[in-house]
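Protein 1 of 2
SEQ + STRUCT:
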Amino acid sequence: MNEKEKLKVLYENRLKPELDDIEKERKTIKRIYTAAIALAICAFLFFSIFWVIAVVFVIGAIIFAGFGATKYLHYRNMYKEKVVRKIIELINPEYHYASDNCISSERFIGSKIFKQSYDRYRGDDFVAGTIEKTDFEFSELKAEYKTETTDDDGKKQTQWNTIFQGVFFHANFNKYIVGETFVLPDKAEKRFGKFAQKFQKDHKRGELVKLENPEFEKAYKVYSSSQQEARYILTPTMMEAMAAMQKRFNRPMHFSFIGERVCCAVSFNKGLFEPRITSGTKFSDVEEMYSLFSLIEIIIHEMNLNTRIWTKN
């Protein structure tokens, strides 16, 4: 039985009975939010005719919205425990899962992947474990910084800007790295080819490293404090694996190799493991979550981190 068939069995035999309770909760929340929206619309329609009635509708809308938010938190907790946790247990029952935890901000900053400092940092769906001899941590993260502007009336306006949103992962690299090496998405070379290399200098990250794998060079640009160490890390096998991962997931992927860790940030523009209100959970949703959590094992195996090629002294 392959992985997809195992997942289908899990969905039919273990998840569907749980989803019946979750589905009832979802429909209740949807009705509550629909009522809140209807009351808000009525308040708008009555405001110019009879403002007292409009105020009553506004109060009703607020009450329904608040009640819906409380119900949603309960619904979300049910979903995390009865769906997400079971998917992780299918991948590996030994993994530790904490729905409301995330990778520490110190680890995120220590990766040095993103230069911009953050003003708001949050995440969830933390997974930690060991694959053979390689320990790892994985979670969904969102880091943002704020900008403030003043309009013509002197009022301050705050805007939140995303630094990173997606899944962040780090693992033991099996060797202490002296310098720092960064592998970043290369959009310019995809568009402009070799001509783009003239504009790729980034002295804060180190020297631009040119490598001999054309597929890898199309997808990534590499900076390192040591040309020799970058080539030591990015073996032909490693470059092939990273190029294959870019093709497979088709998302911006950032890597850093610092100290004893390899860090990887995969960008997404949406929450990945959250329940929806508009529609119920389908097998395709479960399959997508499974593939995202499996990203941990794919990276470790594809990047060959368990071969212990670089043994620590």
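Protein 2 of 2
SEQ + STRUCT:
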Amino acid sequence: MSTVTPAPRADYIRTYTGKRVHFLNPAADEIDILDIAHALSFTTRFGGHTEGFYSVAQHSLLVSELAGPRDALWGLLHDAAEAYVGDLVSPLKNQPGMELFREIEDRLLACVAARFGLRPSVPECVVLADRLAIATEFFNVTPVRRDIPWIIQECGVAPLIDREIMPWPSGYAEDQFLSRFRKLHR
């Protein structure tokens, strides 16, 4: 009887473009905008608990727009680490015991910032734009839209009631993400 030796566990993931991204010790040269756009266009917001497919790529485009021209690129890339580790729902990500996950996500985001010439930390206007986008998404693409007081309590801001969000197919979201990136990153 032969025994199977377990394969060593990799400390990297293989990406859409074939790169290896070492999530425990990432390097800026491992980061590729094509990987980010592709992965985020297939990654769902809110753990998929939406009324239809709604991607992190589309969310990132909204944050980019809401952040304003000066920080639009940071807005577009603020969730880029999720291209490599997935989008973990915030209530779980913020629990005690999730420090390593948050540290890995922070390392990856620092590499994204270095790779694309962004300031090392996410600007406060992007943090606010993200919260506004989340509130507006809750209102538009989830079943909680009728609970505006809860949305305001959860996000700290009111949703943009007059802003309609129509979820895009992943391929369209990817194309729009790349187009916006090319416009902003010169």
